[in-house]
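Private note to self, pasted from the team thread so I don't lose it. Backbone tokens:
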């Protein structure tokens, strides 16, 4: 676990440095939108002064070191000709609103987390249930129908499923009239109602992959010797399927779930964009568009990497409880 923690820390550092270096050394100039938005004509002298104030004239390693130092202790950030005090953990000041990135990020983390949690509950429940039913009836017409249905749903791009659901269920039929994120502290029921359609769309679009994976694992597991022994001892089919078969097949499913959940937290971009939810993914997408907002891009990459790393660590810990062959130490 110590080795995993150290390697995870290195992954986060490398991911943040990669995006930091790409945008500082790339063809775009992060100082130009600040110069053009500062009022007056953006002259070469004015642009160079802003580049110096923003630290863009420094070597990338030195600039990155100052950035990471701000994450730990805080720092003063200069945008244009104005200096801003940025408290730790300082991820910079946004070019657009001149606010601390951490405060802006905090407003958008909650809707992204809620989308990921609700959607993952839906697709994990539906996917595993369909996979279990298909495995229990493998070779039958019901099995073929379920497998064919998952293939049809998987062949449709997710953004198209999301867009069609919004058009037909929100705009035309008004079946889900109030989609979007409403603060859970104001009205939890309204929050649930606003996110119900995004959860269902995300869950139904992702469930087929889990259904096929669960079916494949269960079919393989149900052919093992200990399953035949359990049946020979007179255990019921349901107990063999759930207590013995599912427990053995669940370990690889947990692995995929951990990776998928981390990726969902890292950015549910299509869901947030189509349903107009101001989450972390949509926020980062807007920051990539011109004029590019480097502090937001760097922050979303770092947080996204953190989510994926933490999800992998939780999966490793879960192995110790799910698989008796694995020991955490």
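Design output:
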């Amino acid at each position: 676990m110590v080795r995993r923690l150290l390697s995870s820390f290195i992954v986060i550092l490398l991911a943040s440095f990669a995006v930091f270096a790409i945008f500082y050394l790339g063809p775009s100039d992060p100082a130009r939108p600040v110069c053009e938005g500062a009022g007056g004509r953006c002259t070469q002298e004015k642009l160079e002064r802003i580049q110096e104030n923003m630290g863009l004239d420094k070597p990338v390693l030195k600039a990155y070191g100052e950035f990471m130092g701000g994450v730990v202790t805080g720092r003063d950030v200069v945008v244009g000709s104005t200096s801003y005090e940025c408290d730790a953990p300082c991820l910079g000041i946004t070019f657009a609103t001149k606010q601390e990135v951490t405060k802006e990020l905090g407003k958008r983390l909650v809707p992204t987390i809620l989308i990921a949690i609700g959607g993952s509950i839906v697709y994990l429940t539906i996917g595993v249930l369909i996979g279990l039913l298909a495995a229990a009836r493998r070779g039958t017409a019901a099995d073929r129908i379920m497998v064919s249905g998952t293939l049809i749903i998987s062949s449709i791009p997710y953004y198209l499923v999301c867009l069609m659901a919004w058009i037909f269920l929100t705009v035309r039929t008004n079946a889900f009239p109030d989609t979007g994120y409403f603060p859970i502290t104001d009205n939890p029921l309204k929050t649930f109602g606003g996110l119900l359609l995004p959860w269902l769309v995300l869950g139904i679009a992702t469930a087929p992959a889990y259904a096929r994976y669960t079916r494949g694992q269960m079919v393989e597991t149900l052919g093992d010797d200990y399953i035949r022994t359990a049946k020979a001892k007179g255990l019921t089919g349901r107990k063999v399927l759930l207590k013995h078969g599912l427990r053995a097949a669940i370990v690889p499913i947990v692995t995929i779930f951990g990776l998928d959940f981390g990726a969902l937290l890292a950015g549910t971009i299509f869901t947030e964009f189509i349903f107009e939810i101001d989450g972390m993914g949509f926020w980062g997408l807007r920051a990539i568009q011109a004029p590019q907002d480097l502090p937001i891009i760097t922050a979303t990459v770092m947080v996204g990497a953190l989510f994926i790393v933490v999800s992998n660590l939780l999966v490793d810990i879960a192995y110790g409880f799910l698989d008796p062959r694995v020991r955490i130490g």
